[in-house]
Design a protein that fits this description.
mainly alpha; 65% helix; 484 residues; 0% strand; 3 domains
Length: 484
Amino acid sequence: MFLFGAFCLLTLPWLNPFTFGPTPAVVPWLFSMACAGALLGIVGVTTATTAPGMDRQEWVRAIAGAWLIAALISAAIGLVQYFGVSAALAPWVNGTELGEAFGNLRQRNQFATLMAMGLAALVWWVMQGTSWRLAVAAAALLAMGSVASSSRTGLLQWLLCIAVAAQWGGNRQSTVRRVLLISALVYAVATVGLPWLAGLDPMTSGAWARLREGDAACMGRLTLWSNVLHLITQKPWLGWGWGELGHAHFVTLYPGPRFCDILDNAHNLPLHLAVELGAPIAGALCGAGLWVLLRAKPWREKDPTRQMAWTILALIGLHSLLEYPLWYGPFQIAVGLCAWLLLGSPKPPAWIAWVAALMLAGCAYAAWDYWRISQIYLPVDERSSYYRDNTMDKLRKSWLFESQVQFAELTTTNLTADNAEQIYEQALQLLHFSSEPRVIEKLIESATLLGRNDDAAYYLQRYKAAFPDAYARWTAASAGHKAP
């Protein structure tokens, strides 16, 4: 029973379809952390009660089973989304347009990483003696899910899975070889077959088409990374501060092309650490990781469980060079589980139950506070009865989500001569939370009203550079506040 509970807690974070409020990533992350806390609670209980059957191998089976089942269910969800029928399964399946698939993870690359993780777990199960017929069917479904994602990262990860399995000698086992071969063949056929079945042009949809066409110049990762490198040169030693990349990107005028969107992550873990914490700390952390890798010599592993753990870490590591999966709960849990699989299984300390209790209590409080502040983003008649009157006054003292409350207040308050100073200070602070047009416009307009023309000109120049289309619309519509 305990292991079944652990299996469910490991599976559900990948499948949760629900979110709400002003910051959509909050609810899935809290749900993941609550599952992690409950999982630690199970560990604490089983340690204290010495329940039968709770050995390491049973835990490994629960972990590998959770990754595989989560991937298979997500692959089925992804195909439903790809063929444009996700609305029939709402709200249990997130809605997408025809030809799009991301499961309930809401991002194609995260979905593709889960598909590759499922393949790694499937190889582990095959090496435990799972029926090759079931394994081949599972591999085919995972391959179709990865193709449906249209993820270029997913394509690289699929090749990586096959390569590491071959490196560890998996190609010398007939069942593993058969599974990997089928997965590659299905991937190749589905690249053409899925778009054709969905009524799309195979030449203009899918990962291969996206690789061939690339991104718009101002939206490409090369432009993004060149901007981040420029920011690193501005503050190389201590960085801009944790969480300050978005503000740094807005206030900086680049000598070359500019990434034309809000930038809150460098889409490359080493670069992100360098730009926010400084090159020395980033170098030390990356160097330590490389030292651990070289010392561990994963390419020499013989144990299937350790091979699976290293493969999962490699997949998440590859993803982290192109995006930021480690900012999301399911991937944080996966990395923690891989560390446990690789470091052995010492007896959990007695205080682990207290850690679990604190995690669950913290998640409960954060969920309540987030639900509370989300009321201001709802129409009055849809709010909880207590928050229908004087809503803002009741929400200002939020400990965890003060910025979301201030953002709502700023964007719903009309600028006047009496509140111009307050609006200016609030907008200046909120630039560090979200450097977006609604905040920038209030900042410029309040600065102009206060006669701070130099400040208004400073931010006006950066607004024009960062959001030229929004700037053009705003200047065309602004009759009451003329920027200097």
